[in-house]
Design goal:
448 residues, 16% strand, 4-stranded mixed beta sheet, Aspartate Aminotransferase, domain 2, Aspartate Aminotransferase, domain 1, 7-stranded mixed beta sheet, single chain, binds pyridoxal-5'-phosphate, alpha/beta, 2 domains
Length: 448
Amino acid sequence: MQTITKTTLPEIKTALPGPRAKEILNRDAKYISPSYTRSYPLVVQRGYGAILEDVDGNTFLDFNAGVAVAALGHAHPEIVEVIERQAHEFVHISGTDYYYPHQTALAEKLIQVTPGSFAKKVHYSNSGAEAMEAALKTAIYSTGRDKFIAFRGAFHGRTFGTLSLTASRAAQRRGFGPQTLDVTHVPFANPIRFPLERRAAESVGRRVARYIEQTIFKTTVAPEDCAAIVVEPVQGEGGYVVPPIDFLPELRRICDEHGIALIVDEVQSGMGRTGKLWAIEHFGVAPDIMCMAKAIGGGLPLGVTLAREDLMRWHVGAHASTFGGNPVAIAAGLKTLEVLERGVMKNAADMGAYMMERLRRLQDRLSPIAEVRGLGLMIGVEISRDREASDPWTELRDKIVIDCFNRGLVIQGAGESAVRFSPPLIVDREQVDFAVSTFEAALRDATK
Ligand SMILES: Cc1ncc(COP(=O)(O)O)c(C=O)c1O
């Protein structure tokens, strides 16, 4: 095996894309589905910690973590070790037809570490969308109802069921005809560009609750027909939007009053990203159904739907997937949880606070930064033509993202005009400093 020199900060050695990257991009354009959403030509050879190395030997600082998946960074030695060990034991057996010890062990562990002291059950799948599909089916089956309420800006996946909930970009639905499920979208409790008139001193969280109760329940979705309210505790693809503290408790209250299931999608916000294991813990609410994916498989595909036991009571054969709960992914998931609890989550909280403070100082100096928001290392920066964030500056955001890549910082956009930072949770101060300075330089250059 080739020995590699490991660094903690990036270095760009060739024009981008480099010659080997160019060759792969040409072949990719010929063979790979054009529906993929690539923003810039990063062709990865390997990763370690928060560093990615491309096929031409350039190194990048990864502040996206493979879209919030690599919580412990790339090639974490303990994750690599459990994956190797489990691969030697068995790679697949199908947990829907047979049993293996760690499939049960991860379910037990998740039941202990999720909010709510009631009995719970776990269903395994392979992705975020699949975890959501299982949640939707659980809600329909258990309530006998078939309507849903979801939020503008939401992203829950692109399968036909989840696409009905997703409302973060029109492109996701364009060309796919009528939606499969009956979903009514209401505004998310996003303080910026909030579309509803408010009473004096009424919070956006309370206003959304009043809109559901006084408008939606009376006009389109009778509460007794509503199976579930589906929500991301911090909106992900919608722009890393943190709702005010009363929003999720208000949804919980509405659900309790009407026998509606509260489905919380922790696919992007979970697994320590916000400095707590689950983002919902910041709001003191216990969901009826929780969905997890992304970081939970330690980089391997794994989806989890965890529901109150009295909701997940369905007949044999009602729902399952051959690969759901793959043994290697589960072994990596158990190890990921263990490492997170050993201090990585605290690092996410500390580094997140440090990064937010540095970004807020930038906001004072650079007018296109209209808002800096986030929890832990789930941080969004709103780029706008005005200080009130009412005029989203999408082109500038896109330019910044590409320019950061050219300077060795891997980030992505989210929502209409936000830059999102979702690094591995193991980043240190020096790496945060590099990310903020690079972002600053890119923004300054783009507005020259
Ligand atoms: C909150 C949320 N839910 C669901 C999904 C869908 O997950 P997947 O892409 O694994 O299907 C995503 C993906 O970005 C997500 O962010």
